[in-house]
Design a protein that fits this description.
The chain is α+β, with helices and mostly antiparallel strands. About 35% of the residues lie in helices and about 30% in strands. The strands form two sheets. Strands 1, 2, 3, 4, 5, 6, 8 and 12 form an eight-stranded mixed sheet that branches. Strand 9 and strand 10 form a beta hairpin. The radius of gyration is 19 Å and the shape is globular. It binds adenosine-5'-triphosphate (ATP). The site of adenosine-5'-triphosphate has 21 residues, from helix 1 and helix 2.
């Protein structure tokens, strides 16, 4: 059986409304994600037992033991379908680690799809989504991609009508931010105050319906922003530098530490990416566009 490679996008949160903490420890979310053109690739090849290796600049930061999310996904699919858990996974990592862009979830989604194809288990989309949700709240979105609203833990997905393509510049940070630490900081800041069910602003939804980047830029919202800034004050300089360059909007993605800047055109994105890189306010920059589809098997014949 030849190896199977799956390409999976990162996400940017256009809107992240955080409500009360639930009994299971998760928070109630209203989460509008957009999948963007920054991809991890997960290759599944036949192998004895389960193993994973990781390639890329930040490979050393990713565990390769049984806590690796791609390995956990492969093990779960094998257990569910009764096949032998035998696969050698290789992850080519481009999504920043602890970057608030759901890189680990992307790898889990990639491993589910790649193993399903390699093993011929053909479980179908609904089962992949269900297995994905049990691995992590962001995994179903990595499978579907596009632009979607996630409610409850963020994993109950509804597609959002979004016109147009958006040009983003991502400022990758020097170090990551732990999602758990950022939520804990948010709880600390909120103390015992009661928060209502989170809802999505009509301004954001109508900007997406109209395909209006300027209106979307104004509506970008992240309730985790203040907590991420408290833990990593240097991000305020990054955001400030982007706003000074005249972007349409800026937001910390998810729990950080990546900052995302919405630009009016590809030309502007080229200018902003170069200026941010030159200003020394981030580790590096990436230009991406969204929305893009979710996890897809790569046809080797289509490679440039
Ligand atoms: P999110 O946006 O979903 O909150 P994140 O993008 O900020 O998450 P990740 O890069 O997904 O964070 O990783 C979080 C942690 O998960 C890492 O510190 C790492 O120890 C662990 N992890 C397990 N498997 C993987 C994987 N395949 N890739 C990246 N991290 C992984």
């Amino acid at each position: 059986m030849p190896p199977v490679t799956v390409r999976v996008p990162a996400k940017v949160n256009l809107y992240l409304g955080v409500g009360k903490r639930r009994r299971d420890g998760y928070h109630e979310l209203a989460n509008v994600f957009q999948a963007v053109s920054l991809y991890d690739e997960v290759t599944a090849a036949p192998g004895p037992g389960l193993s994973v290796r990781v390639r890329g600049d930040q490979a050393k930061l990713v565990p390769t033991d049984s806590s690796n999310l791609a390995l956990r996904a492969a093990a779960l699919l094998a257990e569910t379908t009764g096949v032998d858990a035998a696969v050698r996974l290789t992850i080519n990592k481009a999504i920043p680690i602890e970057g608030g862009m759901a890189g680990g979830s992307a790898d889990a989604a990639g491993a589910l799809l790649a193993c399903d194809e390699l093993w011929g288990t053909g479980v179908g989309r609904d089962t992949l989504l269900r297995l994905g949700a049990s691995l992590g709240a962001d995994v179903p979105f990595a499978l579907t991609g596009g632009t979607a609203l996630g409610t409850e833990r963020g994993d109950r997905l509804t597609p959002v009508l979004a016109r147009g393509t958006y040009d983003w510049v991502l400022a990758l940070a020097d170090g990551g931010l732990s999602t758990a630490a950022v939520y804990a900081e948010l709880d600390r800041q909120r103390a015992d105050r009661v928060f209502p069910e989170p809802g999505v602003s009509e301004a954001l939804m109508s900007a997406l319906r109209a395909g209006d980047p300027a209106a979307l830029g104004r509506a970008l919202t992240n309730d985790l922003g203040p907590a991420a800034l408290q833990l990593r004050p240097a991000l305020a300089r990054t955001i400030e530098a982007g706003l000074d360059l005249g972007v349409l909007g800026a937001v910390i993605s998810g729990s950080g530490a990546t900052c995302a800047f919405l630009c009016p055109s590809e030309e502007e994105a080229i200018r902003v990416a170069a200026a941010l890189a030159g200003a020394g306010v981030c580790r590096s920059t990436r230009r991406v566009h969204g929305p893009v589809p979710g996890a897809r098997i790569v046809d080797e014949a289509d490679r440039p």
